[in-house]
UniProtKB/TrEMBL annotation:
InterPro entries: AAA+_ATPase, ABC_transporter-like_ATP-bd, ABC_transporter-like_CS, ABC_transpr_LolD-like, MacB-like_ATP-bd, P-loop_NTPase. It comes from the Archaea. One of its GO terms (cellular component) is membrane protein complex. GO terms for molecular function: ATP binding; ATP hydrolysis activity; transmembrane transporter activity. SMART domains: AAA. Gene3D superfamilies: P-loop containing nucleotide triphosphate hydrolases. CDD domains: ABC_MJ0796_LolCDE_FtsE. It comes from Methanocaldococcus fervens (strain DSM 4213 / JCM 15782 / AG86) (Methanococcus fervens). Keywords: ATP-binding, Nucleotide-binding, Transport. Residues 2-224 form the ABC transporter domain. SUPFAM superfamilies: P-loop containing nucleoside triphosphate hydrolases (SSF52540). This is ABC transporter related.
Length: 224
């Protein structure tokens, strides 16, 4: 589904040069639950952002369903990010001035869905995720775990094939983290491919494939 070939990412130049990724090669198949693990600063977020087409490699190519993504137009990349991929971040990244329901509606507004459909779907997604009684709450009125669940509902709004998650439990207590991980597990069982970054060893049990990074290098791929 996604293939990365000879990916390098270099930030800056001269004395300020950082080689964040060194010749990464990997494949992600449909239906997998992939975890990218390694210590802080080893290049995990950089790799995730490149696989999600949020960033471009300095060298190398990312293929999506056999297609070279470097030849996609900015518009095609935007469509990929809006419809193929859903994104979840450590800091939730909800819009503070919008309610839970409105945050979930947002990607559907960008996708030009009509208002009635948007409201109905946003409500259903929040209900499924256990927040049916929090539709009109603003992010600051919700706990971290609840905010991350709103972010998951938002990521699901346009029916993505893949969820990209960067340390989605990084700011949560272990109980809220387990709720979020179980939601991701259920989504994966329904066929959504998950690509997740973590540095927490105890989360590896959820993965079907583990990609280990160290200092920008891929040191091991474990398939379960
Ligand atoms: P991780 O997610 O594993 O913590 P990152 O991908 O965030 O690692 O970072 C990998 C390396 O690249 C680090 O040395 C980091 O400081 C550097 N880096 C990340 N983003 C940038 C950037 N925008 N500009 C310069 N250096 C960066
Ligand atoms: P979760 O399991 O989703 O993380 P918590 O157990 O942390 O939820 O929160 C329990 C209850 O406390 C929730 O119903 C939530 O509305 C409320 N709550 C938690 N944190 C806050 C906060 N910062 N502001 C307002 N209400 C909060």
């Amino acid at each position: 589904m996604i293939e990365a070939k000879n990916i390098w990412k270099i930030y800056g130049s001269g004395e300020a040069k950082t080689i964040a990724l060194k010749n990464i090669n990997l494949k992600i198949e449909e239906g997998e639950f992939v975890m990218i693990i390694g210590p802080s600063g080893c290049g995990k977020s950089t790799l995730l952002n490149i696989l999600a087409l949020l960033d471009v490699p300095t060298k190398g190519e990312v293929y999506y369903k056999g297609r070279r993504t470097s030849t996609m137009s900015e518009n095609e990349r935007a469509i990929f990010r809006r419809k193929v991929g859903g994104f979840i971040f450590q800091q939730f990244h909800l819009i503070k001035t919008l309610t839970a329901l409105e945050n979930v509606e947002l990607p559907m507004i960008l996708d030009e869905k009509d208002k009635h459909y948007r409201k109905k779907r946003a409500k259903e997604l929040l209900e499924k995720i256990g927040l049916g009684d929090r539709l009109n709450y603003y992010p600051h009125q919700l706990s971290g775990g609840q905010q991350q669940r709103v972010a998951i509902a938002r990521a699901l709004a346009n029916n993505p094939r893949i969820i990209f998650a960067d340390e989605p439990t990084g700011n949560l207590d272990s109980k809220s983290g387990a709720i979020v991980m179980n939601i991701l597990k259920e989504l994966n069982e329904k066929g959504i491919t998950i690509v997740m970054v973590t540095h927490e060893q105890e989360l590896l049990k959820y993965a079907s494939k583990i990609i280990k990074l160290r200092d920008g290098e891929l040191i091991e791929i474990i398939e379960k």
